[in-house]
């Protein structure tokens, strides 16, 4: 049974009783009132037939929760993933066409396969490749692009945004539907957050559209198929087409995983439990595969809907099962009710949902923390905007810049000459204007691992100091921060010790950690001799140099 519980997390769910089910159904109803309209709207954002938004909510949500460790994630269409889908396929087919659907299904299969493989192999560490500044820059740019893409439909503009400055033709009725709906969404979120404003506005707009006759000539949702999705088996694509989908699928998998992580961490912190990232990656991957086989687009985790699920009182995965039943009812009986809803209202749903993503002050906050990371966020933002519609290049650029920044830090570790501060601590001698630790002594500390990336920096620091101070007779290495050493580190350490020995300089090593000491001993780099002195603690070293009282 332990093995089955590992592979099938839903076996750990509690048996439902009447009290539990009442709370779970209530939470499911709360999130479904937001999820169903958003799913239809995000399908349009992905360029897919609108009904596929509900397909991407129905089975994927159920499959994902069955295989996830976090049971209250709202899996389905999300704004960032949907805009990535639409941008990735743009120019390769006509939106909502059969070819477009086939390409998007392959995106779901590829991105889902990537997440499934990462989770199954315990490789959730890959998520660390996308830093917070990269995601910040991308999400800010994506929010602006999403809003720009929805403006024509929101204000009833016939044609693209360029026509707004040339020969604008506006559908005044669509303009009224869009702006009034957007205002109601914003005001409702601020003043009556518990009210299902999205559903109420859709119902009211559909009723007005029908009674006024707008639905007979205006842009409305129109007829949606009734019933469950059919099994979709995608045909094989030419190699050139398939290879063009690999980079977008990788970015979709990474962005989706980070959306999942932001929600799952909140759930695990609230419950006081360890977050199983690998299991959640498996669940996300399985959800995408289910979406693909339903003929829909890649799903993700909605942070806002997950928060609603959590704070509406959901306790277990049974809330998601109940939400699935509600979506099933909509698919079987209620899709005709959406016929008369103006598309301008759907655009208002999208704009209201993504407007909260655009927070330009985040760049200023990053600048106060680290200017380089702020620059990475701005570069990601700029490349995302400039590369539109291929916005996945923004994420890839940010990842490469982040890795370059990381490697620069690893290749240039912090190495300081230390002195004894009046408070008894060892600090940067030059920063605090301290006296040398002892006459003819070079005392240094490296705050990094002693490996292939940092070893040459340590050797260079010692050699440069000896060249500038030929009278040095003692080198003291405070090794407490060094928690790992590799073969390159051992080689450089051995060479450095040999150089000091040839010059008659005593090497003092203080506070070396046992794993590092054992590696150096096995390599014969710590053989005893008159020119090597070891101290277990920094206090012992300071006593040896007469810097502390007995």
Q: How are the strands of the largest sheet arranged?
A: 4-3-5-6-7-8
- Listing every helix as H and every strand as E from the N terminus to the C terminus, the arrangement reads HHHEHHHHHHHHEHHHHHHEEEHEHEHEH
Bin the helical content: 55-70%
Low-confidence stretches: none
Structural class: alpha/beta
Count of individual beta strands:
8
Sheet with most strands: 6 strands, mixed
Mean pLDDT: 92
Key phrases:
alpha/beta; 550 residues; single chain; two-stranded antiparallel ribbon; six-stranded mixed β-sheet; 8 strands; 21 helices
Explain how this protein is built.
The chain is an alpha/beta fold. The protein has 21 helices and eight strands. Strands 4-3-5-6-7-8 form a six-stranded mixed beta sheet. Strands 1-2 form a two-stranded antiparallel ribbon. The chain is elongated.
Task: Kindly summarize this structure in a few lines.
By secondary structure, this protein is α/β, with parallel strands linked by helices.
Topology:
Blueprint: H1 2-7, H2 18-45, H3 51-67, E1 75-76, H4 79-89, H5 98-120, H6 132-154, H7 172-191, H8 197-212, H9 239-244, H10 246-271, H11 277-293, E2 300-301, H12 303-311, H13 318-334, H14 343-354, H15 361-369, H16 371-386, H17 392-411, E3 415-420, E4 426-428, E5 441-446, H18 455-468, E6 474-478, H19 487-502, E7 506-510, H20 514-522, E8 532-535, H21 538-544
Parallel strand pairs: 5-6, 6-7, 7-8
Antiparallel strand pairs: 1-2, 3-4, 3-5
Helix pairs in contact: 2-3, 2-12, 2-13, 2-14, 3-11, 3-13, 4-10, 5-10, 5-11, 6-14, 6-16, 6-17, 7-8, 7-14, 10-11, 10-12, 10-17, 15-16, 16-17, 18-19
Domain STAS: 439-545
Keywords: Membrane, Transmembrane, Transmembrane helix
Main location: membrane
């Amino acid at each position: 049974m332990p093995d089955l519980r590992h592979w099938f997390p839903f076996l750990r769910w509690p048996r439902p009783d009447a009290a539990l089910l009442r709370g779970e159904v209530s939470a499911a109803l709360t999130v479904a009132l937001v999820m169903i309209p958003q799913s239809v709207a995000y399908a349009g954002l992905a360029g897919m037939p609108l009904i596929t938004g509900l397909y991407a909510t129905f089975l994927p949500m159920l499959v994902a929760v069955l295989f996830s460790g976090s049971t209250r994630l709202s899996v389905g269409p999300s704004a960032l993933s949907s805009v990535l889908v639409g941008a990735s396929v743009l120019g390769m087919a006509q939106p909502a066409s059969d070819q477009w659907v086939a390409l998007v299904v392959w995106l779901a299969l590829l991105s889902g396969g990537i997440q499934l493989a990462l989770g199954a192999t315990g490789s959730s560490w890959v998520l660390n490749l996308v830093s917070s500044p990269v995601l910040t820059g991308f999400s800010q740019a994506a929010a602006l692009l999403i809003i720009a893409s929805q403006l024509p439909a929101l204000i009833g503009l016939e044609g693209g945004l360029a026509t707004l400055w040339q020969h604008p033709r506006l559908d005044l009725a669509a303009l009224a539907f869009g702006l009034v709906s957007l205002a109601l969404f914003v005001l409702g979120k601020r003043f009556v957050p518990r009210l299902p404003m999205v559903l109420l506005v859709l119902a009211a707009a559909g009723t007005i559209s029908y009674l006024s006759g707008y639905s007979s000539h205006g842009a409305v949702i129109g007829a949606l198929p009734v019933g469950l999705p059919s099994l979709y088996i995608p045909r094989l694509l030419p190699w050139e087409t398939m290879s063009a989908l690999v980079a977008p699928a990788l970015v979709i998998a990474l962005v989706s995983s980070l959306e999942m992580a932001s929600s799952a961490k909140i759930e695990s912190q609230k419950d006081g439990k360890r977050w199983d990232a690998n299991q959640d990656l498996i669940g996300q991957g399985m959800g995408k595969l289910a979406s693909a086989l339903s003929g829909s687009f890649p799903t993700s985790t909605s942070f806002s809907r997950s928060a609603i699920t959590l704070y509406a009182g959901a306790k277990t995965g049974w809330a998601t099962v109940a939400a699935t039943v509600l979506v099933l009812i909509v698919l079987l009986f209620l899709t005709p009710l959406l016929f008369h809803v103006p598309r301008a209202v759907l655009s208002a749903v999208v704009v209201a949902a993504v407007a909260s993503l655009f927070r330009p002050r985040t760049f200023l906050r990053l600048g106060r923390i680290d200017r380089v990371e702020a620059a990475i966020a701005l570069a990601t933002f700029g490349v995302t905007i400039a590369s539109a519609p291929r916005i996945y290049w923004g994420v890839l650029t940010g990842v490469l810049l982040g890795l370059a920044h990381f490697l620069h830090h690893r290749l240039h570790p912090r190495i300081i000459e230390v002195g004894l501060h009046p408070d008894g601590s060892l600090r940067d001698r030059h920063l605090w204007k301290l006296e040398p630790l002892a006459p003819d002594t070079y005392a240094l500390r490296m705050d990094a691992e002693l490996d292939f990336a940092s070893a040459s920096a340590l050797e260079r620091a010692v050699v440069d100091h000896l060249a500038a101070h030929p009278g040095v007779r003692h080198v003291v290495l405070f090794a407490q921060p060094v928690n790992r050493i590799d073969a390159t580190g051992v080689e450089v350490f051995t060479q450095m010790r040999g150089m000091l020995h040839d010059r008659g300089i005593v090497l003092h090593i203080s506070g070396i950690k046992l794993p590092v000491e054992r590696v150096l001993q096995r390599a014969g780099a710590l053989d005893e001799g008159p020119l090597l002195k070891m101290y277990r603690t920094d206090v012992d070293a300071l006593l040896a140099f007469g810097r502390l009282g007995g």
